[in-house]
Amino acid sequence: MSPVPGVAPLPFAPQAVVFDMDGLMLDSERAINACMARAARELGHDLPDALWLAMVGRGEAVCRAMLAGRVGEDAADALLARSGALYDAVAAAGIDHRPGIVELLRLLVARGIPRAVATSTRRPLAIAKLRAAGLLDYFDAVCTSSDVARPKPAPDVYLLAAERLGVEPARCLVLEDSPTGVRAALAAGMTPVQVPDMLAPDEEVRALGHRIVASLAEAQRLLEARLAEQA
Asked: Is the distance from CB of 132 to CB of 95 less than 8 angstroms?
């Protein structure tokens, strides 16, 4: 019986766990969206909130293309530069954790299970955010969009994480909040558990057949139940 009603038990005890960052470990998606909306207003653009939501989990190049389609190339660059400056200040102050992340990381450390980050954020900002939030030292590897040729939903960043941890992709558990990240994990041959944040899974996402839980605490219960079977 699953420890989380309606969610299938994990099919194996993971040899490694790979974490997305924004929206999964850090409550950063709301901060990012707020900075984008503020920058747009300051620069005189009337853009819908739905646009910021559509960018959740996507790489910087994709987001730039989405903006350029709305406001043009030069205006998109100016908007991204302004929103980036606003967000860097927020990140430097330390972004709040998503509930349950520290407890989950401590469990993995205690069990000796390797841990990596796989994020669409560029490396300097990813390292700065993890350090400011007090999470950097929990990880054996940090893989970013700066380290791979293709961003999520391509599997590159997840495959790199598995390589750096020395674990086969098929033995890796992935924790993600966005549909884009779930697709990347599946393409890498990994087992994703989605913990949605700002984007509720629609029918198309649910049809991917992966596990979806309401919180990191539920994800931890799935993991603990599978690990207990090995004890």
From this structure: yes
**What is residue 55's DSSP assignment?**
T
If residue 124 lies in a helix (H) or strand (E), which one and from where to where?
Answer: helix 123-132
Q: For tokens 């990596």, what's the residue?
A: 116
Q: Which two tokens stand for residue 13?
A: 């005890």
Burial class (CB in 10 A: 0-12, 13-18, 19+), 203: exposed
| Percent of the chain residues topping a pLDDT of 90 | 79
3.30.1490.100, 3.40.50.1000, 3.90.550.10, 3.40.50.620: CATH of 16-28+95-230: 3.40.50.1000
Q: Which residues are catalytic?
A: 20, 22
pLDDT, one tens digit per residue, over 112-165 is: 999 999 999 899 989 999 999 999 999 999 999 999 999 999 999 999 999 999
Q: How far is CA 101 from the centre of its chain?
A: 12
- Cβ-defined contacts of 122-126 (< 8 Å, 24+): 122/60, 122/146, 123/147, 125/88, 125/91, 126/21
Nearest of 129, 127, 131 to residue 144 by alpha carbon: 127
Q: Where are the domains of the chain?
A: 16-28+95-230, 29-93
CB-CB neighbours of 82 under 10 Å? 17
